[in-house]
C-alpha cells in the first residue's frame, strides 16, 4: 500500500483518505475528468466515427466511468494512469493524463521504482505527441488561397504540446514527493531524538537516584563508624564503673574520665558529619584524622576499657593515601567494636603488617569462653560497610570465625595506594 500524497504516513482514516479535503479534491477531479472524457468519447464516436446516438451515449457513459477512476488515484495510482493511456489515442482524456502523471510521480517510491515511472511517462509523452500531431495533420477543408505551414512546424508544435502535457506534472510530482519524504524523515528523526532524550533523562534520573543512595550509604557508614565504637566503649566503661564504684573509687574516677573523653570525641566527629550535611557543595569524605599512626591510641582506649588487647606491627612503615589509611583504621576500629560486643573478656590481637603487595590489618579475638558479659546490640552493618570501603579501593576483605572459636576481621589494601616518596618529573 502506497503512502497518501496529501500528508504521508500510514492511512488511518476511512477508505484511503486521511482528510476530508483530500476526498473532496479527488471527487472534484474525478467529476471534471468524467465530464471531459464523456464529451470526448461522445464526440469521437458521433462525429468522427459517424455512429448512432445509442452507441455515442454508451461511449459517453464509458468515458465518464473512465475519467471517474481518478477517485482512486491515492490508493492505486497506476489505475487512472493506464486508463489515461488508453483514452489519449482517442484525442481526449487530458485531465486524467495530467493528474495521473503527477500522482504517479509523487506517490511511487523514488528511485526504487524509477523504471516504472520513466517508462509510463515516456509512453504518455509519445502518445501525447502522436495525439497532437494527428489532430494537427487531420484533413480539413480550407480555401485554396490559404497556404498551410510546412509539416515540420506541426511536428514541433506537437512536441511542445506533448512536453507541456507530460513533463510539468511529472517534475512537479517528483518535487512534491521528494519534499514529503524529506519531511517524513525529519519527523522520524525528531521522534528518534525525542525518544533518545527521554532515555537520557531516565538514565540521568537513575544515576541521580544511585548517587543519592550511595551518598546515604556513605553517610550511614560514617555514622556507624563514629557511633558504634565510641558508644560501645562508653557502655563497657559504664558497666565497669557500676561494678567498681564502691570498691575502687580512684579507678571508677578514671573510668568516668575516660568515658567523658570518648564521648567528646564522638560528639566532635558527629559535628563534622553534620557540618558536611549542611554544606551546599558535597565533599568526597569527612575530614578525619584517623590514620595508621593512631592505632596505638585506639588500642589503648580498648585496653583502658578492660580488654586484653595487644598491637603487633611488622614491616617497613610506609605512608598511604588518606582514604586508604582511614579505611585501615576503620577496619581495626570495627574489629575492636565487634570484640567489645560479642567477645567480652577474650584476648584480642591487632596486627598491622606492611607487606610488599600492600598493607594488611587484622583483628583476631580468642574464644570468649564464659567470662563474657551481656552482649551489646548490633545491626550487622559494620562488616558490610567495611567490605564496601575496602573493595572500593581495590583491596580484599575477609571476616569469619576461627577454628578455635575466635573471630577474625582482616583487610589487605594494595600497594598502589601508597604515597610515592619520589615524584615523577
UniProtKB/TrEMBL annotation:
SUPFAM superfamilies from the UniProt entry: ATPase domain of HSP90 chaperone/DNA topoisomerase II/histidine kinase (SSF55874)
Membrane spanning stretches: 23-42, 49-72, 78-105, 117-140, 152-177
Keywords tagged on the record: ATP-binding, Kinase, Membrane, Nucleotide-binding, Phosphoprotein, Transferase, Transmembrane, Transmembrane helix, Two-component regulatory system
Domain (Signal transduction histidine kinase subgroup 3 dimerisation and phosphoacceptor): residue spans on this chain: 215-279
Domain of life, source organism: Bacteria
EC code: 2.7.13.3
Catalytic activity field: ATP + protein L-histidine = ADP + protein N-phospho-L-histidine
Protein name in UniProt: histidine kinase
UniProt source species: Kitasatospora paranensis
Amino acid at each position: 500500500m502506497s503512502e497518501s500524497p496529501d500528508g504521508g504516513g500510514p492511512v488511518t482514516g476511512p477508505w484511503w483518505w486521511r482528510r476530508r479535503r483530500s476526498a473532496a479534491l479527488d471527487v472534484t477531479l474525478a467529476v471534471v475528468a468524467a465530464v471531459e472524457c464523456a464529451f470526448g468519447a461522445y464526440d469521437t464516436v458521433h462525429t468522427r466515427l459517424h455512429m448512432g446516438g445509442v452507441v455515442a451515449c454508451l461511449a459517453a457513459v464509458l468515458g465518464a466511468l473512465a475519467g471517474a477512476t481518478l477517485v482512486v488515484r491515492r490508493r492505486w495510482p497506476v489505475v487512472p494512469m493506464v486508463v489515461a493511456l488508453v483514452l489519449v489515442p482517442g484525442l481526449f482524456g487530458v485531465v486524467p493524463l495530467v493528474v495521473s502523471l503527477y500522482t504517479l510521480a509523487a506517490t511511487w517510491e523514488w528511485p526504487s521504482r524509477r523504471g516504472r515511472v520513466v517508462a509510463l511517462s515516456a509512453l504518455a509523452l509519445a502518445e501525447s505527441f502522436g495525439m497532437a500531431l494527428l489532430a494537427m495533420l487531420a484533413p480539413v477543408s480550407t480555401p485554396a488561397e490559404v497556404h498551410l505551414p510546412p509539416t515540420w512546424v506541426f511536428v514541433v508544435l506537437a512536441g511542445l504540446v506533448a512536453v507541456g502535457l507530460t513533463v510539468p506534472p511529472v517534475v512537479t510530482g517528483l518535487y512534491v514527493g521528494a519534499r514529503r519524504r524529506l519531511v517524513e524523515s525529519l519527523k522520524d528523526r525528531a521522534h528518534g531524538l525525542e525518544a533518545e532524550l527521554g532515555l537520557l533523562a531516565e538514565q540521568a534520573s537513575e544515576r541521580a537516584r544511585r548517587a543519592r543512595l550511595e551518598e546515604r550509604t556513605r553517610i550511614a557508614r560514617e555514622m556507624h563508624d563514629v557511633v558504634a565504637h565510641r558508644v560501645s566503649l562508653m557502655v563497657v566503661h559504664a558497666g565497669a564503673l557500676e561494678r567498681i564504684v564502691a570498691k575502687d573509687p580512684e579507678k571508677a574516677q578514671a573510668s568516668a574520665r575516660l568515658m567523658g573523653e570518648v564521648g567528646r570525641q564522638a560528639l566532635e566527629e558527629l559535628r563534622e558529619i553534620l557540618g558536611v550535611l549542611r554544606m551546599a557543595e558535597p565533599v568526597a569524605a569527612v575530614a578525619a584524622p584517623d590514620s595508621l599512626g593512631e592505632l596505638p591510641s585506639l588500642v589503648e582506649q580498648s585496653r583502658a576499657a578492660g580488654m586484653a588487647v595487644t598491637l603487633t606491627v611488622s614491616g617497613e612503615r610506609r605512608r598511604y593515601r588518606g582514604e586508604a589509611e582511614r579505611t585501615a583504621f576503620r577496619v581495626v576500629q570495627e574489629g575492636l567494636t565487634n570484640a567489645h560486643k560479642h567477645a567480652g573478656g577474650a584476648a584480642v590481637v591487632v596486627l598491622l603488617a606492611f607487606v610488599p603487595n600492600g598493607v594488611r590489618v587484622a583483628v583476631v579475638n580468642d574464644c570468649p569462653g564464659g567470662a563474657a558479659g551481656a552482649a551489646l546490640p548490633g545491626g550487622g552493618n559494620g562488616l558490610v560497610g567495611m567490605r564496601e570501603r575496602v573493595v572500593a579501593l581495590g583491596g580484599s576483605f575477609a571476616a569469619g570465625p576461627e577454628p578455635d572459636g575466635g573471630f577474625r576481621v582482616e583487610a589487605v589494601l594494595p600497594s598502589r595506594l601508597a604515597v610515592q616518596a619520589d615524584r615523577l618529573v
